[in-house]
From TrEMBL:
Keywords: Cytoplasm, Lyase, Pyruvate, Ubiquinone biosynthesis. This is Probable chorismate pyruvate-lyase. The gene is ubiC. InterPro entries: Chorismate--pyruvate_lyase, Chorismate_lyase_/UTRA_dom_sf. Its EC number is 4.1.3.40.
Length: 187
């Protein structure tokens, strides 16, 4: 009998009860189903600044690849800081498979300093109200996503909370991970 090693993931579905393990102040941010960009902009009363850290093609880590059922190994990766007055509130990592950015979805590759959420929610507002799969995780220095984010943003706290959501843009998948930074709690 052959036993396959299962990949271990720190990610848990929002409805798994893991949400209650998160500090109370992070729970509304982790469980919110709307546009994070919109929620923050309403809270701060101004548009977010987007600082693009990386926007290139690269390989996925094993946990991300598993999320796409191992069908995709190389994608466009976009990592940004969402800031207000130069203060980072959220670090976002978006995974955009080649098939998701072709045809009428090509505009997703030309976001520049605009947040992905604004474009994504503008496109999906008229779609069905089916909930996108959402997971949350407590990230620490052992977490793959924490290590990846730390390479781009050295001020990342040693323990952070994050959520990731599989969105669909005209039926094509996009995986968005959002790591919440301490300054966000001021809002």
């Amino acid at each position: 009998m052959v036993h396959r090693r299962r990949l271990r993931s720190a990610w848990n579905r929002v409805d798994s009860g893991e949400l209650h393990q998160a500090p109370r102040q992070w729970q509304p941010w982790l469980s919110d189903t709307g546009s994070l960009t919109q929620k923050i902009e309403c809270a701060i009363g101004q548009k977010l600044e987007v600082l693009v850290l990386r926007d290139c093609r690269q390989n996925l880590n094993s946990d991300e690849s598993r999320y796409f059922h191992f069908k995709i190994s190389r994608c466009r990766i976009r990592e940004v800081l969402l800031c207000t007055n130069g203060v980072p509130l959220v670090m976002a990592r978006s995974i955009i498979p080649t098939t998701s950015s072709s045809g009428s979805n090509q505009e997703i590759l030309r976001l520049g300093k605009r947040p992905l959420g604004a474009a994504l929610f503008a496109k999906t507002r008229m779609r069905s109200k089916k909930k996108s799969p959402r997971e949350i995780a407590r990230l620490d220095k052992q977490s793959t996503l924490w290590k990846t984010c730390f390479q781009q943003y050295a001020d990342l706290p040693s323990v952070s909370w994050a959520r990731r959501t599989l969105y669909r843009l005209k039926g094509r998948p996009l995986l968005v991970s959002e790591v919440f930074l301490p300054a966000l709690l001021h809002y």
